[in-house]
């Protein structure tokens, strides 16, 4: 039997880590689908119909799995973190309710039309549906990130007592909901979602291009995959450098607002200046395995690098060490390593983008098999980087669930028993692993089946075809 | 919005916002039970169909709708969390295993049709067809148990009222599902469903009476509320809606039957709300007045809901208009 506090934390970690994959796919695909739908309607070229229909299938599966796993999260605040919900509900519940009403309703209703309704509605309403679904996925992120960012940089509240509990009361909605962290999170997350899907597209495209052009194993619809690869590369060229630049600024914001998180990201124990940026760091003693920068370490670092990062250009800058946050330190190793891997992946994606862009420019995009292999290997890495980034964000704010207000351990439901916590944790471990396997299986099947082609494609380029019955506009 | 200070001092326009939000939370719950209810009912009726083509038509009928319908549950959770956070926290943590049973059933129900359509071999479809049926039956059953425990303030999961209300909600979703499917199908299938509708309606009426009787027997504190005028009026309304449903089903007046099914659902949820009020969580000793959030947040949420919910109805109107009438040949999930 697991301790209810640990069980609840593990369960929340598991359910969010699995859930976030699907919103990343749907938010990242949204701008592509809006564009493909627009081009399909405007040009009637078969390639855009293929792109729209193929990626809509992936989107629909991601959306369904995202819905069922997302509802779990919304209920888990109540089931497992009742003390947190009672304390913070006044500030935290509002954004969740608005997310449901403003965003989730929009996407889920128009999704019906977008996925099932091409033959039932006219072009105008179909285009509106594509935009509404895309907008809905992004608005969802707005409200969820408002709620999350408030926990990182809480503002606009007062502590009061109600029904015998200490609770946060909203006093300044603008300060609370437009809190300092929100814009950083939103830009970083949305760009990451598009970047992840760009990598996913480029990776799939590269696989079929490789099979066809390098392996010379004929692939049906190879033109579709070549276009997919190119769209992925274009999006990667835009998002990958942006993510690195933005991430650098974001890190500086963390230095200012959550110094203990930054200290954990860099594993700085003692407040110091001219702190090096360690690329890798290993403790020399096994006892200190979980302390990447414990007293005696072997490391490779850039002198003054961390100080330079924290201050925005001054290698002599002082960084507050973890020693200043006695008893309020996050688990260092997880944060330190996740941050390193995320940043490493971020730079790798920039390299991939530049490499791919250069090959395309020099007309060798379809021949460079090493590039194809690199892209194939990187297919899931965008999503992995998102996971790592969220681990830095969420583990890095521990032991707080609301920074400096409520500890995570004090947020767990008081009546929860070890038996209940164990039962649901085991249940989720089994069900969610099954869910992941199933999702992967279905996506692989969709990819294997490839885009619709030949007779299956609409004949919209012959306008004398009778329009569907409920046509709104053509 | 121009003067946040004014929003913090008193309720918007002097409205009884706490009571309105109590009503709104139950309205949202009723919308969920009505809309996703017919999806559950379709899942139950799926069990009675052997023919692949008929099964395909049942799935095609709910395909565009179920995801949007299920979002009403998300909004229910969100609205309860936003307006009555302590109720949200107490209720959901107290019924810990039951909540996860509901969520598990919803996961299975949501995935099954999507999976069913991925492959067209017998073994795969048999398996996912069963999963769809099981999810569609257990989700409303557990929801019914949750609602019963909420009303009676039970702290254990299983009680007599919980079991009876669970079964009643399952029967109600079948009533609802028949009404919906008769709008969406033609021919023999549509005619066959009439009998299913009558049977489910009979079962529902018996179970509702049994449910109220069991609450009366188990919870002495609720006896006077059960015999109060509003609750008795709602029981009579239930009988009236049942009569309308039966007559409209017999006469093939599909929209009237669908409306009567909605009436049955709203009457049931109104009975639940009527038995609770002015309390909102009896087991935790919380009333609508004590559990409501502070004035500023309440005013902001009220403005948000007043702006957004009418838009939600527009979205649903667009969706249901685009897919009105029986499913066409060639349409599938």
Give a short overview.
The complex is a heterodimer of chains A (about 475) and B (about 325). By secondary structure, chain A is mostly helical.
Q: Assembly state here?
A: heterodimer
What is the distance, rounded to the nearest whole angstrom, between the alpha carbons of the first and last residues of chain B?
Answer: 45 Å
Sheet having the most strands of chain B? 2 strands, antiparallel
Strand order of the largest sheet of chain A: 1-2
Helix run count of chain A = 13
User: From N to C, what is the helix and strand string of chain B?
Assistant: HHHHHHHHHHHHEEHH
Fold and architecture overview:
The complex is a heterodimer of chains A (474) and B (333). Chain A has helices at residues 4-43, 46-79, 82-116, 123-152, 173-177, 181-214, 222-257, 259-266, 305-311, 332-361, 369-377, 381-395, 418-449, and strands at residues 157-162, 165-170, 272-273, 277-283, 297-302, 318-319, 400-402, 406-407. Chain A is mainly alpha-helical. In chain A, strand 1 (157-162) and strand 2 (165-170) form a beta hairpin. In chain A, helix 7 crosses helix 8 (259-266). The radius of gyration of chain A is 24 Å and the shape is globular. Chain A starts with a helix and ends in a 25-residue tail after the last helix. In chain B, helix 2 runs antiparallel to helix 4 (66-83), helix 2 (17-46) crosses helix 12 and helix 8 runs antiparallel to helix 12. Chain B has a single domain, classed as Formate dehydrogenase/DMSO reductase fold (Up-down Bundle). Chain B has helices spanning 4-9, 17-46, 52-62, 66-83, 85-94, 96-116, 122-152, 160-184, 187-218, 223-226, 229-250, 254-276, 288-291, 295-322, and strands at residues 279-281, 286-287. Chain B has 333 residues and is mainly alpha-helical. The interface between A and B is large, with 76 and 65 residues.
């Amino acid at each position: 039997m697991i301790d209810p506090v640990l069980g609840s934390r593990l369960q929340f970690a598991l359910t969010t880590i699995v859930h976030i994959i699907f919103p990343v796919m749907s938010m990242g695909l949204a701008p592509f689908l809006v564009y493909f739908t627009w081009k399909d309607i405007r040009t009637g070229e078969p390639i855009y119909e293929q792109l729209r229909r193929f990626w809509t299938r992936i989107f629909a599966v991601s959306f369904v799995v995202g819905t069922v796993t997302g509802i779990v999260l919304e209920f888990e605040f109540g089931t497992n973190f009742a003390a947190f919900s009672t304390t913070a509900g006044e500030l935290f519940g509002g954004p969740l309710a608005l997310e449901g009403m403003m965003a989730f309703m929009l996407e889920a209703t128009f999704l019906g039309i977008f996925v099932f309704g091409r033959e039932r509605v006219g072009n105008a309403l179909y285009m509106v549906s594509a935009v509404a679904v895309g907008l809905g996925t992004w608005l969802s992120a707005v409200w969820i990130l408002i709620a999350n960012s408030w926990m990182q940089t809480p503002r606009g509240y007062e502590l009061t007592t109600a029904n015998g509990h200490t609770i946060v009361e909203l006093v300044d909605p603008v300060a609370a909901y437009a809190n300092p962290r929100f814009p950083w999170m939103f830009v970083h997350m949305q760009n990451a979602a598009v970047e992840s899907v760009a990598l996913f597209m480029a990776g799939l495209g590269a696989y079929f291009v490789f099979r066809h052009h390098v392996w010379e194993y004929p692939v049906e619809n190879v033109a579709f995959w070549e276009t997919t690869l190119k769209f992925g590369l274009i999006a990667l060229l835009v998002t990958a450098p942006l993510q690195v630049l933005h991430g650098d600024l974001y890190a500086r914001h963390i230095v200012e607002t959550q110094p203990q998180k930054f200290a954990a990201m860099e594993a700085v124990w003692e407040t110091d200046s001219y702190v090096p940026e360690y690329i890798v760091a290993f403790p020399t003693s096994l006892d200190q395995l979980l302390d990447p920068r414990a007293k005696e370490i072997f490391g490779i670092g850039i002198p003054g690098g961390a100080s330079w990062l924290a201050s925005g250009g001054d290698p002599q800058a002082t960084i507050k060490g973890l020693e200043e946050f006695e008893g309020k330190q996050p688990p260092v190793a997880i944060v330190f390593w996740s941050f390193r891997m995320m940043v490493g992946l971020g730079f790798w994606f920039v390299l991939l983008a530049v490499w791919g862009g250069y090959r395309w420019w020099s007309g060798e995009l379809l021949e460079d098999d090493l590039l194809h292999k690199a892209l194939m290997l990187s297919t899931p890495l965008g999503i992995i980087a998102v996971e790592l980034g969220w681990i830095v964000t969420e583990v890095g704010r521990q032991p707080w669930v609301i920074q400096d207000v409520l500890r995570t351990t004090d947020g767990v439901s008081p009546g929860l028993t070890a038996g209940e916590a164990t039962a649901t944790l085991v249940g989720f471990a089994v069900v969610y692993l099954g869910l992941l396997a199933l999702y992967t299986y279905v996506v692989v099947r969709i990819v294997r089946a490839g885009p619709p082609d030949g007779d299956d494609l609409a004949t919209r380029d012959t306008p004398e075809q009778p329009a569907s019955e409920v046509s709104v506009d053509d | 919005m121009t003067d946040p200070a004014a929003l913090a001092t008193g309720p918007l326009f002097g409205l009884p916002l706490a009571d309105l939000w109590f009503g709104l939370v139950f309205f949202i719950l009723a919308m969920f039970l009505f809309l996703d209810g017919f999806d559950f009912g379709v899942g139950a009726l799926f069990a009675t169909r052997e023919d692949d083509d008929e099964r395909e038509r049942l799935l095609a009928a709910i395909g565009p709708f179920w995801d949007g319908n299920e979002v009403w549950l998300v909004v229910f959770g969100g609205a309860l969390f936003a307006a009555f956070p302590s109720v949200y926290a107490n209720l959901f943590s107290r019924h810990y295993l039951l909540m996860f049973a509901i969520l598990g059933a919803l996961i299975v129900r949501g995935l099954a049709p999507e999976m069913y359509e991925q492959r067209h071999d017998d073994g795969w479809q048999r398996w996912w067809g069963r999963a769809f049926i099981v999810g569609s039956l257990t989700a409303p059953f557990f929801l019914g148990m949750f609602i019963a425990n909420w009303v009676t303030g039970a702290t254990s999961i299983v009680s007599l009222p919980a079991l009876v209300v669970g079964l009643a909600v399952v029967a109600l979703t079948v009533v609802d599902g028949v009404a919906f499917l008769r709008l969406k199908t033609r021919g023999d299938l549509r005619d066959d469903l009439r009998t299913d509708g009558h049977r489910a309606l009979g079962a529902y009426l018996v179970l509702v009476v049994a449910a109220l009787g069991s609450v009366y027997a188990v919870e002495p504190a609720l006896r006077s509320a059960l015999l109060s005028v509003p609750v008795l009026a709602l029981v009579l309304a239930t009988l009236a809606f049942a009569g309308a449903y039966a007559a409209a089903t017999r006469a093939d007046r599909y929209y009237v039957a669908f409306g009567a099914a909605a009436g049955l659902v709203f009457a049931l949820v109104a009975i639940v709300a009527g038995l609770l009020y002015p309390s909102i969580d009896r087991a935790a000793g919380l009333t609508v007045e004590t559990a409501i959030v502070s004035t500023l947040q309440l005013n902001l949420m009220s403005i948000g809901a007043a702006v957004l919910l009418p838009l939600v109805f527009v979205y649903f109107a667009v969706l249901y208009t685009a897919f009105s009438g029986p499913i066409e040949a060639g349409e599938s999930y």
